[in-house]
């Protein structure tokens, strides 16, 4: 009995917290020209009148310049814009208002303090405004994730992808698949329950099987996108690798146009991993400068650096492998076959040749120090299609690499399009893969001869539907029944 009472009290407290009117600073912290403080919940109108004055009445979505006061003393706090958003036509779906005030820490602190003294109001916890928007069906989970990505976007391509997702591109795509799966499950259950009454068409199973095959193919194509959306969201993990003293650090400094790594004439200057995020043509690139890959060394620090470099290479989305153009010229590396033989000879003992050349990972080989070659030698080496010749001492040859690098980034990340939204989160990928598995199990095993109990088959479709509903945060058990009564005239 005592435990039950505790549960009831906790539940009431949770409901009270969830139904409270919340407020928070919605703009960035720190001194600025204008700061925005947002209020949302059932007591918003009372809070607005308490701060601005009871005589004021506001039209929805109209900005008013008003003085803001302390409710207790009517002392003026500031003068700013006030906006009123009655629910459900607001961001959260509840009554909302915004105070746009001068962005000093004193003004912000005073207004937040006085809002906190009003009955029924409390400070919002992180993400609570968006959580209420989700609860009130203003956003689904894919749109919420897209909004979070948009807030953290650092490049133009990231912004485009996040904006499309926050605007519902993935939501619409997944919602359409969900509708098809619900319809198929509803038709199957109707067939199970009513086929003997001859009120269900004989081709129901054939039609839903064809629909399921089409949806499975669409989901599989969406999942098998080479992780383009995830790579764009997280940044292209680009590792700069190669032997000591081939110019890796100089190359990083040149590409980023600033002194990131220490450069000396001493081989093996870089011992640890140096990481840098750079906006390259609108694409986010996470450069990693690594220790030189040496076949033999007794230096324990250098050995650890090589170990870390190899690990970075294994995890990279893109490898920029630098070679010494002068050394390649001495070995007369003038064809792709000779380049492969050279890499096998020099790097197979480091367990890198197979991971770079045979694994499904993109590698760009770069021959640095091209300024040491004469024009004829340089032209011969440029005939190797997999090799780009550059010189970190001049801009001319680097431009060729920059153009090739931008094309590589476009291939890796793709172009965000509303017509073909990209899968952007690992969670989506895992759940969609499970969805495909459930559909495949149904298509593989469903047969009246194999399954005497068709309800087992129907459960596979319910599980497929649930996978998509978990992604969008829309889990319901009544949808299938709704479709049954809509699509079938039972008992006619």
TrEMBL record:
Residues 21-138 form the GTP-binding protein TrmE N-terminal domain. SUPFAM superfamilies: P-loop containing nucleoside triphosphate hydrolases, TrmE connector domain. It is found in: Mitochondrion. Keywords: GTP-binding, Nucleotide-binding, tRNA processing. Belongs to the TRAFAC class TrmE-Era-EngA-EngB-Septin-like GTPase superfamily. TrmE GTPase family. PANTHER family: TRNA MODIFICATION GTPASE GTPBP3, TRNA MODIFICATION GTPASE GTPBP3, MITOCHONDRIAL. HAMAP family: GTPase_MnmE. This is TrmE-type G domain-containing protein. It comes from Glossina palpalis gambiensis. The lineage of its organism: Eukaryota, Metazoa, Ecdysozoa, Arthropoda, Hexapoda.
